[in-house]
Design goal:
- It is a single chain.
- The chain is α+β, with helices and mostly antiparallel strands and about 350 residues long.
- Helices cover about 25% and strands about 20% of the residues.
- It has helices at about 120-135, 175-190, 195-205, 245-265, 310-315, 325-335, and strands at about 5-10, 15-20, 70, 100-105, 145-150, 165-170, 210, 215-220, 230-235, 275-280, 295, 300, 305, 320.
- It has a 9-stranded antiparallel beta sheet with strand order 3-4-6-5-10-11-9-8-7, sandwiched between helices. A 3-stranded mixed beta sheet has the order 1-2-14, with no helix packed on it. A two-stranded antiparallel ribbon has the order 12-13.
């Protein structure tokens, strides 16, 4: 099969992706995930994120009407983390891990996902992320601000209320640190920003493009690892979200919303994913080679069928893609950009 027996270089991760799309149709007798889920109410009395309800900490949510941000009641990092650590044995090393963890509720409605919001609603979420990034990133003890959303039980989400999280940490996560190095190497060797070259390559090829507007694009990257992996970002390279202008942010919101609607329309069901905003570190460094963008990593490769990380990924440290990016992009291109529930 053409294009299904090859390695493709992932320039941001600086690693090869093995593309073996003929494996997509191999027999499967393992576990599957539910695709169609029971209806979700607009307000859930048991939800700790809904307006007016009590959270696990005992704090009561206000009757919020738009985006709502609060400090995570069960944070993975905190300002009160221990500063004195026991010395590890032998050659092992450790260091302090602290920071600030927050939750961002996208809407007071328990049933309103980003995919079903209007563009203005998605832009309000982006504006909140922008403000949070600027505030937390300005703190001298914060080296990086990770903004992300986990959607769906398939990626371990326990509360279906539409929300994302923020980790502002005294360290930089490895994926971002690697992207920094990739960007620096590309800038030094070519004089260009890697993100802009990726966008130019995708626009020129065209086969994997999902959205193009004045200031933003969305596409399944040529080096996609997951079946329906999508990158959304500005055409102009900026190091982080706070550098976007108002018009760039509005176009980014429109592109993101369209991608998420196409996800849900693909199987007429809520589409699980991990969405991460890739921003440069906030440690005072110069990151002229870094390109802010949003990455969406959906775990399903067929309705209800997970992409498992197994021998090649866990054992070998490489990634084996069971699908061809061009084919998956064509599937997303073929569905409507208007959410199917808006037509019911």
């Amino acid at each position: 099969m053409v294009g299904t027996w090859e390695q493709r270089w992932h320039p941001l991760r600086r690693e090869w992706v093995v593309v073996a799309a003929h494996r997509q149709d191999r027999p499967w007798l393992g576990e599957t995930q539910a695709v169609r889920l029971p209806p979700v109410p607009s307000l859930d009395a048991q939800c700790t994120f809904c307006p007016g309800n009590v959270r696990v900490s005992g704090a009561k949510n206000p009757a919020y009407e738009s985006v709502f941000v609060f400090d995570n009641d069960r944070p993975c990092v905190g300002v009160d983390a221990p500063t004195e650590l026991a010395v590890p044995p032998g050659i092992y090393r450790n260091r302090v891990a602290n920071g600030i963890a927050r939750v961002v509720c996208f809407s007071p409605r328990h049933d309103l996902s980003l995919a079903e919001m209007d563009v203005g609603g998605v832009e309000r979420v982006l504006a909140t992320w922008q403000a949070q990034f600027a505030e937390l990133g300005a703190r001298p003890e914060v080296a990086h601000v990770l903004l992300f959303e986990n959607r769906g039980a398939a990626v371990g989400v326990s509360n279906p209320h539409p929300h994302g999280q923020i980790y502002a940490t005294n360290f930089v996560f490895p994926t971002i640190a690697n992207e920094v190095l990739a960007g620096e190497e590309h800038l030094a060797s070519s004089g260009r920003v890697l993100w802009e070259d990726i966008v130019a390559s995708e626009v020129h090829d065209g086969r994997r493009m999902l959205v193009q507007n004045t200031h933003a694009v969305a596409f399944v990257p040529w080096f996609a690892r997951y079946a329906y992996e999508v990158y959304v970002g500005p055409r102009r390279a900026v190091a982080d979200l706070k550098q976007l202008t108002a018009v760039e942010r509005a176009d980014l919101a429109a592109a993101l919303r369209e991608v998420l609607a196409r996800f849900d329309n693909l199987w007429q069901a809520p589409f699980p994913y991990v969405m991460a905003l890739h921003n440069a570190p906030t440690d005072g460094g110069q990151y002229r080679g870094f390109g802010f963008h949003i990455e969406l990593h959906p775990p399903l490769r067929k309705p209800g069928l997970l992409k498992y990380l197994a021998g090649p990924e866990v054992g070998g440290g490489g990634f084996l893609a069971d699908t061809l990016p061009e084919q998956k992009a064509a599937e997303l291109q073929a569905v409507s950009a208007m959410h199917h529930r808006s037509l019911e």
